[in-house]
Amino acid sequence: MKKRIVTGLFTALAVMANAQSFTEWQNPEVNAVNRAPMHTNYFAYESEGVAQTGVKEHSSRFMTLNGTWKFFWVKDADARPVDFWKPGFNDKGWCDMPVPGVWELNGFGDPIYVNVGYAWRNQFKNNPPQVPVVDNHVGSYRREIVVPATWKGKDIIAHFGSVTSNMYLWVNGKYVGYSEDSKLEAEFDLTSYLKPGQKNLIAFQVFRWCDGSYLEDQDFFRYSGVGRDCYLYARDKKRIEDVRVTPDLDADYKNGSLRVEVSLKGNGNTALELLDAEGKQVATATVRGNGVAVMNLDNPHKWTAETPYLYTLRAALQGSSEVIPIKVGFRKIELKNAQVLVNGKPVLFKGANRHEMDPDYGYVVSRERMIQDIQLMKQFNLNAVRTCHYPDNNLWYDLCDQYGIYVVAEANIESHGMGYEESTLAKRADYKKAHMERNQRNVQRSFNHPSIIFWSLGNEAGYGSNFEAAYDWVKAEDPNRAVQYEQAGKTGKTDIFCPMYYGYNDCLKYCEDDSMNRPLIQCEYAHAMGNSEGGFKEYWDMIRKYPKYQGGFIWDFVDQSVRWTGKNGKMIYAYGGDFNRFDASDVNFCNNGLVSPDRVPNPHMYEVGRIYQNIWTTPADLQRGEINVFNENFFRDLSGCYLEWEMLKDGKVMRSGRVDDLNVAPQQTAKVKLDLGTVCQCAEWLLNVSYKLKEREGLLPAGHIVAKDQLTLNAYQAPAMDLKNTELSNVEVAAPVIQENDCNYLIVSGEAFRMEFNKHTGYLTKYEVNGLDMIKEGEALTPNFWRAPTDNDFGANLQRKYAVWKNPEIKLTSFSQHTENGQVIVEAAYKLPEASAELSLTYVINNSGAVKITQKMVADKNAKVANLFRFGMQMPMPRSFETVEYYGRGPVENYADRNHCTDLGIYRQSVSEQFYPYIRPQENGTKTDIRWWKMLDAAGNGIEAVAAAPFSASALHYTIESLDEGWSKRQGHSQEVEEADLTNFCIDKVQAGLGCEDSWGRIARPEYQVPYADYEFTFILTPVRHNIGIQ
Hints:
Radius of gyration: 33 Å
Number of helices: 12
Shape: globular
Structural class: mainly beta
Oligomer: single chain
Number of strands: 58
């Protein structure tokens, strides 16, 4: 391999000795050649009028480079063209490539997904700074443009928003420069290379991998190409080169100051004008030369995620027409008493990590998609985002400023594949410059954004002197923000203790240790892979209890999968391993999102939205109609909301009302009186309370529910499991008839029903009422201890640890029947030898075809047997049973440790909509705390289930087996699983929780597990007819 590298370099050097060395791509101490210095994110408009639009694309000083470029791709780096940049080069046989656009989603190479260990890990041993030549794809771009003639006499700058992994640039046959750091813009001064008013050739070449790739081992899809907008812009020769704004508040957090630092190319005075949101001038100042001015404001509007008020600063160099507008938010960030304070308040960070990812365009994320993401964050009460694990598009920070999102702004550093010990690049002198530059440029570019509360030095890249030096530089450069780095732990250089996947007990221990004096804000937690987020509330119980525990950032916001065509021609969301047999893959570990790739909220997003909400309702004196309303906001009262309430009797709305004036200050509790009336003790009475916006706020419409709660007025009493015969006046009760002369089946029948029990298994195999079969032909009502393992289950290896319960041997040891009190009782006893347990099934059948079923298991107290996934039964029904109606938690799926977002009520849904297509098939569709559950056909006929206590149930057009990938994951996709010609009804006493601490070993909290023990489950199935609507 090394020989091939040397050969390729020699060829390049021989051809291009007069221009560039072509050693840059494997030299960690050369990360840029002739690249313009980084400056804060701004655009200089040609006039005040155009500046007011705030849209650079409308400026005559702007020219897009987006669009179609001529493109040539090679598989191996040493096969790249070496003279393509020449003006006379013939590119007629080249393909087209969009800019921005990633190669792998435009027909060149395959997407790769790996979590850790570099994309080359299957073929190449790490040897920094050397990267492979073989499979190191290289893309070469050419395009002719005409630069406006009016730009003559101006300086012309090229802006390449994001190029992975590096770029060499030529203009009109001359070498311009080189850049690495694929997630920050590279700008080059092209003034001396371009000819305004004439055709100009721009050519650049991009390597899939370079020495900088060792710092870009982030847990995401590895694409190559151009990920963000590219353009040219013109500047006056004499101009403002950089503007930095530092807002601050006084000790009382009332009055504000704005420090403005200006750097010039040339000299002169800069006029500063500060405008409020309505465009009214509120302050002015002048900066002489390269200098600083401070603008003071009495009681300005403050910027927070709750109140994202923005002023506009206009900077104009006197004697120039250029106007630079910059958004300003007045806010103050402090570290005091083991807390982060924003404007003096210890805010809670209800966050998520967000990769820049689109299912169709990869790294190319549109403005519309960004706004959609922020809208979803606002809808589900997220107030903070970590830019994992690199700087985002400038527009993302603009939108966070505008709509109010706290940001952890992370540098483009992750060398996870090198490990954390002595091999870490954090300790290597030859990579110090890259560590420093990536952090410096991150700060220099994004300095002005009020949404940025923390700088993050990187992610999962070990710890060493390089990070310590970066921390020192960032703190000196910007002492007004917190700086964090996860690998610094509790004792290294970090202002925040920001671990990832810190368990409940570890968090509790830290919170109760008074010697720990840094805020605890998990940079990653609550791993949202597949059907997850069980136990999320328990994290927030601690956060709301302990002052120095201020929140965290869920991993992560969006499932990363790409839209793809599967083996059967159906659309799937593809993940690692779906593209070829050779590339490294970490399978579906890229899909840990709160929302799907197309931004459909995954079911667990609703749990996050409830737990993250900012208004909480608790009982005060419910008999008098009094509730306590706590406003968890830190900066705004509840005057923008109204309260709606409704009372439910056994799930049906009986009364409702509204409270328009909510006088609740931030962080305060107020008592609110509702005209509830009286309730009886004869039923379950519930109070639903919701809080809605009076007017549109940002991206949220008027009427949007910002918070809700459900209180119990009179608790549920489970029905007695006394199954009685149906009695009609003047009609003698006839007991069911037993027919046992068949050698295979025991038959129990009545006037309108027939049941058949298999004498060899003891199972109910036929349940017919009024000619309608409740059990699909050839199936049976059977014990069920298994579920299709979730991603968290697979991560903890439960598909193997719990395997004894998957298809346990269930040996029938006795089978009998008798008649008692006019009802038939059928009893079956079993042994489960592999599980060291005894099981019994008892059926009590009345004269109208209702059956009470008791499933009882006795465990061997001396045996060591794995936990169960569930204890219950399943009954495959004909597919015609397409409707479920139930009184329980809904409307979305929910589980024992993830049901706080679901309210008790009566819901009527189709079986088809019960299934949720997690990207990899797994358990889904369960509902909990069920009082009654009906399975109905189109005519409203079917069965109703009730139990001795609230139970869980599900109904899917899928079998458990079809969603179970077995011993190991098998590249499954929900869209490729065929529906079964049945409706599989599962009814459980209990099912294990989902967990969320991580997806690679930890399981649900103990209180949500189903340990090996004795269990007894009694439920009644009753035929129902013409149940055509909610009763």
